[in-house]
Amino acid sequence: MKRKRRLGLAILLSIVVSLTAAPPVAASQNEEAPFSLESQRFCGSFDLTVSPGKVKKIGEARIVEAGDGISVSLWHTPSMAEVDIGLVDSDNVFYYFHVTESVMPYNVIIVPKRDRYTLAIRNSSPYQVDAGGFVEECRDIAK
User: Fold this and answer.
1) Which residues lie closer than 8 Å to 103 by C-beta, 6 or more apart?
2) CA neighbours within 13 Å on the CB side: how many for 120?
């Protein structure tokens, strides 16, 4: 039982550390995705195309409390493309994970402050990227 608890804490710590490895940056060259997540919380799936060098916002902005987490999984093609997936706040700051593999299992973004956030994907490669995945909001994950 202790071993499982320690493993769980180690996984949570690695998620938090991986978030801090990707500094927030300004989101620019936005595109809007014709997609709507379910309810007032982040919960649902997405499937879209992102042009080279563009940021595509997914759905509408939602209020998220400080310390809450947004769990995101992602797949994309072509496999050699590099994308960033994360949240854009009301000041247009992008909190993201840099994805170099064609599949990213669930990772959690811990929200640093109460604000309105929009899920977004940035295509930093010279290729058009098809992407999809799932998103779910987790309450009070960092508290």
Assistant:
1) 74, 75
2) 31
Nearest to 63 by CA among 24, 13, 108, 113: 113
Q: pTM of the prediction?
A: 0.70
CB 24 within 8 A of CB 94: yes
Indicate whether 8 belongs to any domain: yes
Angstrom distance (rounded) from CA 74 to CA 23: 19
Whole-angstrom distance, CA of residue 136 vs CA of residue 94: 18
The domain that holds 47 is classified in CATH as 2.60.120.380
Residue 143 in any domain: the answer is no
- Please, which pLDDT band fits residue 123 given cuts at 50, 70 and 90? very high
